[in-house]
Amino acid sequence: MRFVDEYRDADRARALSAEIARLCDPGREYKFMEVCGGHTHTIYKHGIEDLLPDNVTLVHGPGCPVCVIPMGRVDDAIHIARRPGVLMTSFGDMMRVPGSDGSFFDSNAEGTSIRMVYSPLDALKLARQDPEQHVVFMAIGFETTAPSTAMTLLRAEAEGVENFSVFGNHVTIIPAIKAILDSPDLRLDGFLGPGHVSTVIGCRPYEFIPRDYGKPLVVSGFEPLDILQSIYLLLRQLAEGRAEVENQYTRVVPWQGNTTALRAIAETMELRPYFEWRGLGFISHSALRLRERFAPFDAEKRFDLPGLRVADPKACQCGEVLKGVLKPWECKVFGTACTPETPIGTCMVSPEGACAAYYNFGRFNRRRVREVSGA
Amino acid sequence: MCLAIPGEVVEVLPDRADLAKVVVSGVRRNINISLLAEDPPAPGEWVLIHVGFALSKVDETEARAVLEFLAGIGQSYSDELDAFEDSHID
Ligand code: SF4
């Protein structure tokens, strides 16, 4: 219990850790996937695994929106940015994501203007301020972020802003979870459900997981105690032979989600037939594109995009990391050729990416520490 | 960008029901509150903010706990605050 004193309520952390140990069947291995990169961050930062019995393993999921953007989309964005009179904008986390010919930062060094913005509304404002320039917002993110893009589109339409468009890359979490459940590589015992995505979509969309796959899911908050409590709730379900969707994060997540946000997404965007996820390949109905009504604001329609599929670098094992098949340190280039300063794969770029979280906090896998130290 | 940060609503703009002024760690900026149109936040209430939009209301105890947690995660929170400071939504 080395790290327990860092917890806001160390007594509660100790009590939960003891409860977790009590619920575990020592003859069984438990594998839980935390879907969201925010959880991965907390788990490494606070050494959550140190508070768990050895037969409980946490597996990192695909829920880092920057990590799942394929190289081809970065290339497409740079292609748009190279057009004269275009100002490309996106969130800060996108700036270092490698495309096949470098990142946004590299591209700016060669003369494009790609700027980071805090909000899509800031991008819209840039368009309003300079009508001579065409401002494109590269939209990324799961359902947490999609409503903001939707509201910005509605605003741009209402104001008739003509020099603004959106390069849409929003992905949806449910098909990714389903792809992982259907993949033969991994046997999971349950999920920690993403907190902020669930404020938008609510808890109902997860109900197929217990129903069709017989596995529990607990929507979890981001603090160490939230995660411990969610693991406890998962183990309690398994011990009692139940599989249900539970909501640990009721202080923020309403069961029905945010209907205003869902309506705004539905009004402006529709499902794409398929979309490529870095490392996971093409997943059907897993991303959003702008509806026909918003064609004037759709960068994919306004600009001719090469839309090439670019294979990930050979050394990169992000796909395995995103599917939870490999732990970050098991990738051959982890920490050597691939570091946050010189990322080869996306999981090393965003602080929510499993590789970056692991690299930054450097807490070693328990078993590995023992192997290395011979204990 | 993945972080949702808590801010205290200090003013709802009189002529713009979709905008509110919030204070996040001492920085005062506009955010859009139209995602909470069914139950708009009033001054003194706390909201979780994600890329310039209030995503949900939280109570003050929760907000302070989240702030304390975010302060502990270091770099990604300070990057988020820098981005927030650069924001000028209107
Ligand atoms: S270490 Fe780098 S290349 Fe390997 S999986 Fe992680 S991000 Fe990808």
UniProtKB/TrEMBL annotation, chain A:
GO terms for molecular function: 4 iron, 4 sulfur cluster binding; carbon monoxide binding; iron ion binding. Gene3D superfamilies: 6.10.20.100, HypD, alpha/beta domain 1. Keywords: Iron, Metal-binding. It comes from the Bacteria. The keyword Nuclease does not apply. It holds the Pfam family HypD. InterPro entries: Hyd_form_HypD, HypD_1, HypD_2_sf. The keyword Nucleotide-binding does not apply. One of its GO terms (biological process) is protein maturation. Belongs to the HypD family. This is Hydrogenase formation protein HypD. It comes from Saccharopolyspora thermophila. The lineage of its organism: Bacteria, Bacillati, Actinomycetota, Actinomycetes, Pseudonocardiales.
TrEMBL record, chain B:
It comes from the Bacteria. The gene is hypC. This is Hydrogenase assembly protein HupF. One of its GO terms (molecular function) is carbon dioxide binding. One of its GO terms (biological process) is protein maturation. Belongs to the HupF/HypC family. InterPro entries: Hydrogenase_HupF/HypC.
